[in-house]
Amino acid sequence: MRRGHLGFEGMEAVKDYIGAIDQGTTSTRFMVFDKSGRVVCAAQKEHEQIFPKPGWVEHDPLEIQRRTEEVIEEGLAQRGLRAADLAAIGITNQRETTVVWERATGRPVMNAIVWQDTRVAEEVARYSAEGGQGRFREKTGLPLSTYFSSLKLRWILQHVAGARAKAEAGELLFGTIDTFLLWNLTGGPQGGVHVTDVTNASRTQLFDLRKLDWDAELLAAFEIPRAMMPKVRSSSEVYGQASLSAIAGVPVAGILGDQQAALVGQACFAAGETKNTYGTGCFLLMNTGQRAVPSKSGLLTTVAYKFGATAACYALEGSVAITGALVQWLRDNLQMIENSGEIESLARTVVDNGGVYFVPAFSGLFAPYWKDNARGVIVGLTRYANKGHLARAVLEATAFQTREVVEAMEKDSGIALQGLRVDGGMVGNDLLLQFQADILRRDVVRPVIQETTALGAAYAAGLAVGFFSGLEELRANWAVDRVWKPNMDETAREREYRNWKKAVTRSFDWVE
């Protein structure tokens, strides 16, 4: 039996819970889980989105640090829990967002540059012109893009006065948000641990996927001093002890980027197992096992997880830019619904899409097309079409785009998808999930516990300290809430998908 701290009666008390910090793009949550993966308590706070110029997106790292400390205290207080009740804490985080801070004071040299920020677009073009958009893909699994940390970090060193000299002297530290939080939670300037895990490192474009370490040639290409880089560790090990009073002495023992955490929370531990997170956009990850599969179909190759001393597992990732955001657009811009939950009932006022297809290429198309000059189109309109048909076309667009990414994954990996595990804000929509099953011709499975991102971080931390015995226990925790099975006629399915593909071509090359 697991044993923890000495209780008041001199008996050792079992630590019954595991904590997780889920630091996202718009908010921070702290959640506590029990052995079965059930949520015991949760607290959440938003932080400010800062837009200094068009295309620029920043966060205040110190605000994120404060919000993290606040939700930890609030979450524990809900159930009267103490540090002594927690076996460990894991961290999951928005990926690619870039922070540089002073080693001596902990003060950031500027706001964090968020993953969505596009200020380095000209540098992407310049680097691509010198060697092609895929010049670093073989080592990193990533194309040149505004998305990743490499050029954001270079921008900070180029534009903050004195930053480069201080970085070369070892006075500045770099990290993604997981690293910044871990450093502060474990002491900050007084001995804070400067570490990231392999999943977050794999999103910087400075990391060799196979060597699992920073790469000297990549650091040189982006002009990044090695002295500012964190140590790279596995996703599941004890990195240090928390010094924050509310959790003092609790091991911080797991780190996973948010989409990899959702893969772990969904217990996708076998090659071919796949999850899709339906949020503002969609993030589809397929576990490819111990093989880093290069993509020829516009997908990303990334580290899925590495638990302690075991071999790293990899994933293929496909992202769709606009899914839940399209429902918000219908609500906010067209005001056809008052809240996002109404989309399903409006779509159910009609029996099909009435021949209407909506391609939401508002800022271009992501995987598998990668066309920046595409723009959104609605096609197939007739006098018959009404707002119910448009609502249905909005939901179907999410499912069609998911099928395109799934087909690219199957082509790249040579693995046939058996079923799709789903999570995220849109998975309460039964109509969407039935159509997803129909158009994929695969089962779509929603788990009982849908807080999969925080759960994945808790699992990683729990494995490190023996709170969980191994992957079989985590698989046993995963339980099905509902399965949607395909029941669409094959002729109809392929006709709908063919029409969708035709609609997508109408969005191409709109911006000259």
Summary tags:
about 500 residues, alpha+beta, seven-stranded mixed sheet
DSSP helical segment count: 16
In quaternary terms, these chains amount to single chain
- Level of helix content? 25-40%
**Class per helix and strand makeup:** alpha+beta
Computed Rg: 23 Å
Strand tally: 23
Largest pleated sheet:
7 strands, mixed
**Strand arrangement, largest sheet?**
17-18-16-15-21-22-23
Mean pLDDT: 91
Q: Describe the global form.
A: globular
Low-confidence stretches: 1-12
Q: Which percent band covers the strand fraction? A: 15-25%
End-to-end Cα distance: 66 Å
Report what the structure shows.
The protein is α+β, with helices and mostly antiparallel strands and 512 residues long. The chain is built from 16 helices and 23 strands. The strands form seven sheets. Strands 17-18-16-15-21-22-23 form a seven-stranded mixed sheet. A six-stranded mixed sheet has the order 3-2-1-5-14-13, with helices on both faces. The chain has a two-stranded antiparallel sheet with strand order 4-7. Helix 9 packs across helix 14 (452-464) and helix 10 (324-332) runs antiparallel to helix 12. The protein is globular and about 70 Å long. Residues 1-12 have low confidence and may be disordered.
Summarize the SSE layout with pairings.
Elements (H helix, E strand, L loop, with lengths): L16 E7 L3 E7 L5 E8 L11 E2 L1 H18 L7 E8 L5 E4 L9 E2 L7 H11 L5 H4 L8 H11 L3 H6 L3 E4 L1 H9 L9 E3 H4 L5 E2 L4 E2 L1 H6 L9 E3 L2 E6 L9 E7 H8 L8 E5 L3 E8 L10 E6 L7 E8 L3 H9 L10 H5 L9 E3 L17 E3 L7 H27 L5 E5 L6 H11 L2 E5 L4 H13 L6 H7 L2 E5 L5 H16 L7
Parallel strand pairs: 1-5, 5-14, 9-12, 15-21, 21-22
Antiparallel strand pairs: 1-2, 2-3, 4-7, 6-8, 10-11, 13-14, 15-16, 16-18, 17-18, 19-20, 22-23
